Amino acid sequence: MDIFNRNRERNPDDHFSNLMFGRKAEPEQEESKEVDYMQLLASVETLMGLYSQYKPTIDKINLNPLIAKFLKKE
Question: Looking at the domain assignment, is residue 13 inside a domain?
């Protein structure tokens, strides 16, 4: 076993290398860059509708500081 040959591919069954160096990341397939704006707008409309439904409850139990903490940009 040549331990100094770093250019060779690791065997996925090589448990020692997987333990010491982690598994090799699988190459990700590129997805299409197209955005379905109609689906995006429908999702935003749904979220805004749900927020308007639950806004009285949010105000009643005072969750605004908690929501503001998540929406705060730093």
Answer: no
Model confidence pTM above 0.85: no
- What's the CA gap between 69 and 66, in Å, rounded? 5
DSSP state letter for 72: -
Please compute the mean of the pLDDT values over residues 14-38 and round it to a whole number. Answer: 77
What are the φ and ψ backbone dihedral angles of 2, each rounded to 5 degrees?
Answer: -90, 100
Domain count, the chain: 1
- Selection from 74, 39, 71 nearest residue 58 by Cα: 71
Instruction: Tell me the angle at which helices 37-60 and 64-71 cross, rounded to the nearest 10 degrees.
Output: 150
pLDDT at 57 over 80: yes
